[in-house]
Specification:
Radius of gyration: 14 Å
Distance between the termini: 34 Å
Catalytic activity: a hydroperoxide + [thioredoxin]-dithiol = an alcohol + [thioredoxin]-disulfide + H2O
InterPro entries: AhpC/TSA, Peroxiredoxin_AhpC-typ, Peroxiredoxin_BCP/PrxQ, Thioredoxin-like_sf, Thioredoxin_domain
Helix content: 25-40%
Family: Belongs to the peroxiredoxin family. BCP/PrxQ subfamily.
Strand content: 25-35%
Mean pLDDT: 95
EC number: 1.11.1.24
Order of helices and strands: EEEHEHEHEEEEH
Number of helices: 4
Pfam families: AhpC-TSA (PF00578)
Shape: globular
Length: 155
Amino acid sequence: MSKLQPGDAAPDFTLTDADDNEVSLESFRGRRVILYFYPAAMTPGCTKQACDFRDNLGALTEQGFVVLGVSKDKPAKLRQFRERDALTFPLLSDTGLDVHKAYGAYGEKTNYGKTVMGVIRSTFVVDPDGKIEKALYNVKATGHVARLTKELGIS
């Protein structure tokens, strides 16, 4: 697994959203995109992180950002997650983990002291030209959005 670095081209993708619509990274060219990968919809940490993005979406949108959440969950589960927690940004399904792997967001990680293969909670900021502006791996669910908005100069 290779990790992306600032300046790298963001791997393009087309994934299915919670409503079974196709969403491509390419369609957001000209805008800054916050792309975050999370392990599983409706788990406590992932819910906290998604709700933090939801609660900060106004400030992010005002600054020209688009937020996209990606997990290995199927669209039906993403729909349930969106509705349960009133999430107002696209949740994308990557059941085959191809996009996770392209971004280095799937691989070996330590979980409760054991090395396992799994989703690495990661966030990327993609600039308007499709280049990686920020690549943050192994982020914490709690406090991550506050840290990210601070780093991006949004508060």
